[in-house]
Amino acid sequence: MPLLEHLVELRSRLIKCAYAIAAGAVIGWIVYLPVVDFLRKPLNRLSNDPNVSDAFLSFEPLEQFMLRVKMSGYLGLTLAMPIVLYQLWKFVSPGLYKNERKYALSFVASATLLFALGAAIAYYTLPAALDFLTGVGGSKVQYQYTAESYLMLIVYMMIAFGIGFQFPILLVFLQLVGVVKPKQLSQFRRFAVVIIFVIAAIITPSADPISLFALSIPMVVFYEVSILVGRIVYRRRADDEDSVAEEAGTAT
């Protein structure tokens, strides 16, 4: 496909993603208050601490409106994630073998589930992370957050974990297109573990050790799983190529 057609295809996919995100943002605006109540629960679990208040502060008249707009955008992206991932797959699938293009549903489902799993782990580890962060300041500090500071922290953590959990999808895709091979990933394992911990430390907004290990350890496990999946893919590809060669030899 010529470059211009690639750009036209990319534009079409991006427009479809934008429509899906916009529709999700409308839903996000409607369900904003129940979502805030749900995201507030990790803070409520610390309410037994007399130094921590679960009541949000607000200092500006437009603060809550702009926060609702911002949260609606994040919710819209989350709700549209399956469509965005499907459009991404349709854009890159022409570079795959014909028998590998049928993995669209598996790609979308696994990527969506992994993102949801990462977000869930971030959500359930947040109380421990907050407990660690409040403990650093000592017992003579009163903690009361604005809605934006708290909600953006938990949203960014959920996004960071969700993106981090896409790691195996990326590695499997790179093996599908032949950029890397399972043997190369296996040989790079020691360096990969160090890089994973560094990346986890960078993308974790709270910068606490609990969140760091909660993100990096699953990524290390996913690294090993992606190597196994890559070996299976390469073995099947080799079998398919042998079958094609045998059929060609029989035909001649």
The gyration radius over C-alpha positions equals 22 Å
Distance between the termini: 32 Å
> What fraction, in percent, of the residue positions are helical?
over 70%
Largest sheet: none
What fraction of residues sit in β-strands?
under 5%
Per DSSP, the total helix count is 10
| Number of strand segments | 0
Structural class by sheet pairing and helices: mainly alpha
Overall number of structural domains: 1
* Coarse shape: flat
Mean pLDDT, rounded to whole units? 83
Low-confidence stretches: none
Q: How would you spell out the order of helices and strands?
A: HHHHHHHHHH
Assembly context of the chains: single chain
Task: Offer a concise description of the structure.
This protein has 252 residues and is mostly helical. It contains 10 helices and no strands.
Characteristic key phrases:
78% helix, 252 residues, 10 helices
Can you tell me about this structure?
By secondary structure, the chain is mostly helical. Helices cover 78% and strands 0% of the residues. It has 10 helices and no strands. The chain has helices at 3-30, 32-44, 63-79, 81-92, 104-137, 147-164, 167-176, 182-187, 189-203, 209-251. Helix 1 (3-30) runs antiparallel to helix 4 and helix 9 crosses helix 10. The radius of gyration is 22 Å and the shape is flat. The chain starts with a helix and ends with a helix. The model has no long low-confidence stretch (mean pLDDT 83).
Layout of strands and helices, then pairs:
Blueprint: H1 3-30, H2 32-44, H3 63-79, H4 81-92, H5 104-137, H6 147-164, H7 167-176, H8 182-187, H9 189-203, H10 209-251
Helix pairs in contact: 1-3, 1-4, 3-6, 4-5, 5-6, 5-10, 7-10, 9-10
